[in-house]
Amino acid sequence: MAETQEFSIGQMVRVKRLWPTDHHRVPFYLKGKIGQVATCLGPVENPELTAYFKKSSDQHILYRVRFTHAHLWGGSQTDEIYADLAGKWLCEPEG
Amino acid sequence: MTDDKQAKSHTHDGTRGAHDLGGFLNHLLAHDIDARISREEMPKTPYEERADAMLLLLSNAGKGLLNIHAMRRASEQFTHEDYLKLSYYDRWLKAMAALCIETGVFSDQEWQAKQQQVLSQNKAGQQRKSD
């Protein structure tokens, strides 16, 4: 079962504050940070299962999220970085 | 780097893998890791090309023995010390061996025995050279 798209373009999202020791594709420096959904890249295979050779039809919906350097590292307000993150790793900014 | 204080406090708390160093310069410096980015093209050594070829063969879609996510996961399971001291292709080789053992391509005993065999062959070769 593929996840369905749950975030819209332009929406502000927070990266979940989770620290599993299992393989996952979210860098430490983004956890808990707030960004804006730039685009939805659609479904991809779930690396959290593939990494353990687990066969599953489970797929992740991947979003490209924009963060400002200012927010991440106190740098420039105009510089930005983009990260491709699975929907299951995103939540409402208050979340 | 305003998060350097945070980086220090997170260095050994188990939430941050040795692979997950983005944005934390002090962590690299604390481990005596050269954080400079070399702009020079590095020559590829024969063993690196063989490591690359092995990974391609093992990742072959038809056989499906390895995949890139499992490769990353295997590297993330190294000790911090191993992860940080190994070169890029040494990490690949160590991860490939770990996954081959995990998936039953060869056993840990076979792997250990082969390493011993190669080591003693090299030793014998060096002995002949010096004679």
Q: What is the H/E order of chain B?
A: HHHHHHH
Q: Which descriptor suits the 3D outline of chain B?
A: globular
Question: What percent of residues of chain A are in strands?
Answer: 35-45%
Architecture of the largest domain in chain B, according to CATH?
Orthogonal Bundle
Please name the defining characteristics of this protein.
heterodimer; A: 95 residues; SH3 type barrels; 2 helices; 5 strands; 9% helix; B: 131 residues; mainly alpha; 0% strand; disordered N terminus
Describe the model.
The complex is a heterodimer of chains A (95) and B (131). Chain A is mainly β and 95 residues long. Chain A has one domain (12-91): SH3 type barrels, CATH 2.30.30.50. Chain A contains two helices and five strands; from the N terminus they run ββαβαββ. Chain A has helices spanning 47-50, 69-73, and strands at 12-15, 34-45, 59-68, 80-86, 90-91. Chain A has a five-stranded antiparallel beta sheet. The mean pLDDT of chain A is 90. Chain B is 60% helix and 0% strand. Chain B is mainly alpha-helical. In chain B, helix 3 (46-58) packs parallel to helix 6 and helix 4 (68-76) crosses helix 6 (88-102). The relative contact order of chain B is 0.09. Chain B has helices at residues 4-10, 25-30, 46-58, 68-76, 80-85, 88-102, 108-130. The A-B interface holds A 19, 21-23, 27-29, 47, 50-53, 72-74 and B 1-3, 10, 14-17, 20, 22-24, 67, 69-70, 72-73, 76, 103.
